UniProtKB/TrEMBL annotation:
Domain PurE: 119-251
Organism whose genome encodes this protein: Enterococcus gilvus ATCC BAA-350
Matching InterPro entries: P2CMN_synthase_LarB, PurE_dom
GO-annotated molecular function: hydrolase activity
Name the UniProt record assigns to this protein: PurE domain-containing protein
Domain of life: Bacteria
Entry's Gene Ontology BP terms: 'de novo' IMP biosynthetic process
Length: 253
């Protein structure tokens, strides 16, 4: 553990937000904190450059509270994805510093906000119905210190809307394209920009959209090169990957 993290632990102890026993255990841990129901990976940031993120779906409010409290001594910004409003309200009664974004259903505690990158991530959606997935990607990327441009509702049904924002999209270091229905937007954007594209199929659509499977297959079979596809509705995965790409480009300047 580096000196800055030790200082942060000591600060938490002085503020009575962390017990001396818990601080000592954190300093002398084996790379994870065992809570019984979860093992917190305390060294993920050192290994991968990105801290552990909490997947909230399937966890109780008490479990999320326990996990976040265990993470307080280890990382500055804490992100909890896929948390519905009722569960978020229960978590915030104990941890009010966690901000809840209703659009993305993300709980975020920016204890030490990162300086934003000069290079931008453009998040492009086919429709307003893709907003939840788009905001999950956007909030994730911003939590990791990225500047984000939101370009929403520019799908192929009215492609002139896309062309009106094309200059802004082309200026980004990496583009996330989010679409349901037939998922055609990723291929269209792939033929218009030179930057890496991460495509996110969403479960938006009628019967034969098959809850996003049609869009997923379209994106995987795109004839436009340079498109990487993440799982259905996986805005978090897209935002995470885009952040890594954007920070690589930033470091190369």
């Amino acid at each position: 553990m580096d000196a800055e993290k030790i200082k942060e632990l000591l600060k938490l102890v002085s503020e009575q937000k962390l017990s001396p026993e818990d601080a000592a255990e954190t300093i002398h841990n084996d790379g994870f904190t065992d809570l019984g129901f979860a093992k917190i990976d305390t060294e993920r940031g050192q290994r991968t450059g990105m801290p552990e993120i909490v997947y909230g779906e399937g966890k109780t409010a008490d479990q999320i509270i326990g996990i976040v409290e265990a993470m307080l001594g280890e990382q500055n910004n804490i992100l909890v994805t896929r948390v519905d409003g009722k569960k978020a309200a229960a978590v915030r009664t104990k941890l009010p510093h966690l901000h809840y974004d209703t659009a993305s259903e993300i709980l975020l505690w920016e204890r030490n906000p990162q300086m934003k990158t000069q290079g931008k991530i453009a998040i492009v959606t086919a429709g307003t119905s893709d907003l939840k997935v788009a905001e999950e990607a956007a909030i994730t990327a911003e939590a990791f210190g990225n500047s984000v441009d939101r370009i929403y509702d520019v799908g192929v049904a009215g492609i002139h809307r896309l062309f009106a924002r094309l200059e802004q999209i082309r200026a980004a270091q990496v583009v996330i394209v989010i679409a349901g229905m037939e998922g055609a937007l990723a291929s269209v954007v792939g033929g218009l920009v030179s930057t890496p594209i991460i495509a996110v199929p969403t479960s938006v659509g009628y019967g034969t959209a098959f809850n996003g499977l049609a869009a997923l297959l379209t994106m995987l079979n795109s004839c436009a090169t340079g498109i990487t596809v993440v799982n259905i509705d996986n805005g978090f995965g897209a935002g995470y990957a885009a952040s890594k790409i954007n920070h690589l480009a930033e470091a190369a300047k």
